[in-house]
Amino acid sequence: MVDRIIAIGFLGFIALSSMIFFLFALVIWLTTVLFDKRLHILHYFTSFWASLYIWAMPAWSVSIEGRKHIRKKTYVVVSNHQSLLDILVAFRIFFPFKWVSKAEIFKIPFIGWNMTLNRYIKLIRGDKESIRRMLQDCRKALANGSSVFMFPEGTRSETGRLKAFKPGAFLLAKENKLPILPIAINGTNSALPKHSLNFHGIHEIKVNILPEVPYETFAHLTDNETAAMVRTSIAEQLGQS
User: Fold this and answer.
1) CATH number, domain containing residue 199
2) At the N or C end, where does the chain have fewer CB atoms within 10 A?
3) Which domain range does residue 76 map to?
4) Which residues have C-beta within 8 Å of that of residue 152, sequence separation ≥ 6?
5) Domains of the chain: total
């Protein structure tokens, strides 16, 4: 019962505060969009907004290692996907990128509207036309110098075990001759399992930013071979090799 009360209170806090933060986001967008073409200022504000929800939950202890591996480059960023919390946790890196996210999230009042302001990229899973548009939007973002963040598993893992990686992110990296930045997120599945919005106690969440994979490393590989190689590096970090 206590867990349920904590969860309802936390979700209520998110719902109420998102109204206020969206107004700030709208003002930032209106005052910066003409000169901040990649919307970095808005993204950093969004990172603060998301991080606030992690900071507001003392039961979630988040540590981030490997920030030194992030350079001033355009990356195709890929991460495993254990939980809805992965999104909030990834914002804690405070690194500018464009999310690729399922279209339903964009419909959430205030939070989804802010995603639209940020020009994050929509995807309807299983819809071939949507996948084509998503890849095209990613190409535009990358060509503009914006990194793109994708979950190559395609959906959250039920158990936390790493699923097979789809090749889309690796296709983009290869055709644009860009480095891949792998990220391993561990502990979010226990803190907030798939299909649950309940409170699940105290948990340590770890984010490891791995060394970039230069284009030259996978230039001779197929997209599926590159996906398997990067998956292996993330699996080893998660202790799932």
Assistant:
1) 3.40.1130
2) N
3) 2-238
4) 78, 165, 166, 167, 168, 169, 170, 227, 230, 231
5) 1
